[in-house]
Design a protein that fits this description.
Blueprint (H helix, E strand, L loop, with lengths): L1 E2 L2 E2 L8 H11 L5 E7 L7 E7 L35
């Protein structure tokens, strides 16, 4: 199995058995499969697997509402030039 042109090591969780299991769950082979690890600062990263019919890359910022208690992200600047001094 290869992902992004790299051959995965034998015995990794993402191998031909996982591909076959995914095909059984979906009822057919998925045209696009994405495997990645997500790290949100917990004890360890979480392995993720996604399957889709295709992919569309859309440039730009994806705006999401902040999580409760998370610091607010800076918004778009409404003035030209560098930020104004705050002192």
């Amino acid at each position: 199995m290869e992902i992004a042109g790299r051959k995965l090591p034998e015995g990794s969780w993402w191998d031909s058995l996982e591909t076959a299991r995914l095909a059984r769950v979906l009822g057919e082979a998925a045209p696009l499969v994405v495997a990645f690890e997500a790290d949100a600062g917990g004890r360890e990263a979480v392995s993720c697997l996604g399957a889709a019919e295709g992919m569309a890359v859309r440039p730009g910022i994806v705006h999401r509402p902040p999580r409760p208690g998370a610091p607010a992200a800076p918004g778009p600047r409404d003035w030209p030039g560098p930020p104004l001094p705050t002192d």
